Structure formats: structure tokens, C-alpha cells
Amino acid sequence: WDEPPPMSWQGGRVLCDTVSCSVPCSHPLPAPAGGCCPTCTGCLHEGVARAEGDVFSLSDGNCTVCVCLAGNVSCLFPECPPESCPSPSPADCCSCNPEKCNFRGRTYAHGARFSLDGDDCTTCVCQEGEVECSFTPCPMLDCPQHQRHLGPGQCCSTCRDPPAPAGCFLDDNGVEFPVGQIWSPGDPCELCICQADGSVSCQRTDCVETCPYPIRIPGQCCPDCSAGCTYMGRTFSNNETFPSALDPCLSCICLVR
């Protein structure tokens, strides 16, 4: 039968103490049913119970091999010979052997990155005996082809500054005027000139009427006092007489002075 826990008699009373477990291993198994102390007859590793003498690999899938001995777990990582490297496959942990690259008279180790002689715009890499080269990526340019420029030592083209304006371009009618050109935009009393910086400067003509009844000629800015008279909506020539529209007894005459 199971032994009762240690107890002592003191003055007719029974005192009980918890059993102190001594565990001499690093990965003991939990106490079996009906027991109170862990056991070193197996191993508990990463939440998995291993039997005595069990050989297993780690959960990360590398080539480390572990063994359970008397509740202790010991792990070993295989040492690969020179010029080889660990493989992710536990069946052949030292299978890979990266080849070096011989390129243009030089030898490069696996994974080495280098630039071509005299060409900093090309980057090469050695991959298992093969050299792969790629050009430096360039940004997209928003200028037309004739404004792009590739400077000395540059890998990518840049946009030149647009040339200075050679005239004035009017968006409303699509007409371009050279610098110094003078024109009327539609109003005979307004004149515009194309400036050297591509801007347009306009100025309006002020008319000074020298007679009370001038004639307005289409396409001409200011009224003309030498061509005749305009009176009550009618046009009369110089020295022409006509009855007054306000008093039929009055006679009027157009005099150009």
C-alpha cells in the first residue's frame, strides 16, 4: 500500500508535511497518476513527451538532432566540412556547396555583389556559379524626350529646364505672336504688345471728342469730326442743310470745323 505522508506526534496531535521532490534531470516527465514527484524515466521537451533514448529533431526543421537520456535532453548540430553549408533537409544536412563565380578574370564568392568596371549603373551578384547583372532603376520623367539629358557619370537622365519663351502664345485662339508684335484683341481702342518674357501687355486708347456731333466709323476707335455730322440718328455731310427734327420751322446745317 501507499506509504502515508510523514507525520509526527506532538502532544497528541498529528502534523503532516509536503513531500520534497528531488529532480536530478533537466526535462522530467510530469508525475504519473497517483504519484507526487516528476520522473526522469523520460523527457518533456517543447510540450511533447519523449521516451527514454528517443532521438528527434527540433520543430523548426533544421538539422539539429536531440536525444532523451535519463530526463535530460542533449542536442547536437552537425558540423559540415569546409566549402559546404547546412541544408534545410535533415536527410542531408551538408549537401549544398555554393560555387564561386569566375567573371571577367575575377573570382567572386557566392552571394557577392559588385559593379562592372567603369559602369556604376550596373550591379551584379554571384549566385551558385552564375552572375546576374541588372541596371539601376531610373525614375519616370514627365518631360518630353528632347528635354531629357544624361550628364557625365550619371545613371539616369534628368529633365532640362524648358527654353526661354520666343513669343507670346494666346490660349483663347491659339495664335502665337513674336516678341515686339503689336495687335488689337478685337476692340479698336485697345492695343497689346508681346513682351520679351512671354507676357502680354495691353493698353486702352482714350478718345477726346472735339465736336458735339461726330461720326462713328466702324472699325475705328475714336469718332471722326471731319467726315460730317451725326444728328438725331442721321448722318449728314459737311455744309449739308436739313430741317430740325424738333421744330419744322428751323433749318440746320452741318459745319465741319
From TrEMBL:
Domain (VWFC): give its ranges.
Answer: 41-102, 99-160, 166-226
Q: Which GO terms describe its biological process?
A: cellular response to virus
This protein's GO CC annotations: cytoplasm; extracellular region
Key words, A-Z: Glycoprotein, Secreted, Signal
> Where is the protein localized?
Secreted
Q: Which InterPro entries match?
A: vWF_C/EGF_Fibrillin (IPR052080), VWF_dom (IPR001007)
Note whether Signal occurs among the keywords.
yes
Just give the chief location class: secreted
**What PANTHER family does the database record attribute to this sequence?**
VON WILLEBRAND FACTOR C AND EGF DOMAIN-CONTAINING PROTEIN (PTHR47333:SF1)
**Under which name does UniProt file this protein?**
VWCE protein
Q: Which lineage do the record's taxonomy fields give for this organism?
A: Eukaryota, Metazoa, Chordata, Craniata, Vertebrata
Gene encoding the protein: Vwce_0
